[in-house]
Amino acid sequence: ENVLDEIKNIVDHEYGKRRLAVHPGIGFWAEDPLMASSIQQLNVEWIGPGVPVLDAVGSKSKAKQIVTSLWQKSSQEVRDSWGHSQSPPIVPGYHGENQDINFLSDVAEGMGFPVMIKAVMGG
What percentage of the chain exceeds 70 in pLDDT? Predict the structure, then answer.
């Protein structure tokens, strides 16, 4: 049984054949792009963020890149409407592939302490 079949079984169990739309609420369903696309493949309306949005904001690294890029592309008028023209405050971090402890120690030294270690995906 594939993921789509599993999701179809869940939706059938929860909503029966009367389903017109699914609102994911909060938590697991609301944050899962696979869930959103699977619901849409079942020809059921997904009431929530679209798959591209869920993909983007599900990754802290990707979300930071998007915010930075949008800010750089925004006009001065948009920046002024925010009440300031400085870029949004984004906590510095390392988003690379190299996970060598000595390398990461050097990166941490460069950013300054304290340092918080957080997974790139999830809460």
Answer: 87
For the chain, the residue count is 123
Give the model confidence (pLDDT) of 19-64 as tens digits: 678 787 777 677 888 888 888 888 888 888 888 888 888 777 888 8
Residue in the block written with tokens 């009431």: 47
Residues 91, 103: Cα–Cα separation, whole Å? 19
* Residue pair 45/22 in contact by the 8 Å Cβ criterion: yes
Half-sphere exposure of 83 (CA within 13 A, CB side): 0
The C-alpha angle with vertex 72 and arms to 78 and 79, in degrees rounded to 5, equals 20
Residues 6+ apart with CB under 8 A from 44: 11, 19, 20, 21, 22
Tell me what the pLDDT averaged over the chain comes to. Answer: 80
